[in-house]
């Protein structure tokens, strides 16, 4: 893998941290956890891999109040700085929800991969109300989840023309039911399920996760 290049971009007067490695078509990964993601390391010989830490996460600034712009605008600020005109976006868990909102918001996202998150079910009204009332969740996550919850994702996914892949483990609490899998396929979404794996076992930080190879193959089959 080429040397990892850690960089900083400015958004709404705040500092965004991100890392770039490799060359080729761009794969952008919204990153909410510390440490490097396994696909970032393993796929840099095929792609320009970009890990972006949105405001409120990891090493980026944590402004409060949080900028009102959508998270896709932070992603595009980095892509503009790196001269990336279009990209595949891939996220897991909350990052998977972020990938959906990014692909929904900008045509520059040409493919979308969401792992470990049931987009059709999202968050309950009660959970969201408790989050906003108690304010224990950091402001970056609170802002994002309120934004995410404002959309009808069944309708949004139907309107998104880009190739889409969603995956999860059979032991994951975010596993998509057979009924919802049928709905996703009806919306033109590819699905993958990993037998015997829980949420962590499918995660982007697990070196034994089969997701890296499956997603790489899927990207290539869709011309990326």
TrEMBL record:
AB hydrolase-1 domain span: 43-108
A single MF term (Gene Ontology): hydrolase activity
SUPFAM superfamilies registered for this protein in UniProt: alpha/beta-Hydrolases
Family annotation (InterPro entries): AB_hydrolase_1 (IPR000073), AB_hydrolase_fold (IPR029058)
UniProt key word Membrane: no
Keywords, comma-separated and alphabetical: Hydrolase
Gene3D superfamilies named among the record's database cross-references: alpha/beta hydrolase
Pfam families per the UniProt record, alphabetical: Abhydrolase_1
Residue ranges that the Swiss-Prot or TrEMBL entry lists as coiled coil: none
Record protein name field: Alpha/beta hydrolase family protein
């Amino acid at each position: 893998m080429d040397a990892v290049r850690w960089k900083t971009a400015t958004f709404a007067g705040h500092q965004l941290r991100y890392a770039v490695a490799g060359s080729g078509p761009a794969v952008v990964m919204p990153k909410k956890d510390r440490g490097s993601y396994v696909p970032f390391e393993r796929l840099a010989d095929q792609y320009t891999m970009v890990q972006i830490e949105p405001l409120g996460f990891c090493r980026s600034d944590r402004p409060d109040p949080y900028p009102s712009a959508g998270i896709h605008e932070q992603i595009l600020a980095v892509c503009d700085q790196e001269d990336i005109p279009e990209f595949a976006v891939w996220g897991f868990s909350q990052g998977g929800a972020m990938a959906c909102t990014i692909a929904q918001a900008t045509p520059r996202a040409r493919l979308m991969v969401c792992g470990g998150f049931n987009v059709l079910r999202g968050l309950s009204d009660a959970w969201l109300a408790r989050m906003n009332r108690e304010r224990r969740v950091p402001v970056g996550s609170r802002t994002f989840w309120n934004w995410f919850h404002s959309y009808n994702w069944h309708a949004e996914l139907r309107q998104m023309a880009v190739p889409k892949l969603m995956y999860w483990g059979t032991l994951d609490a975010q596993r998509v039911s057979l009924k919802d899998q049928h709905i996703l396929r009806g919306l033109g979404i590819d699905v993958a399920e990993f037998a015997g794996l829980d949420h962590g076992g499918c995660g982007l930080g697990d070196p034994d996760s089969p997701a890296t190879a499956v997603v790489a193959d899927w990207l290539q089959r869709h011309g990326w």
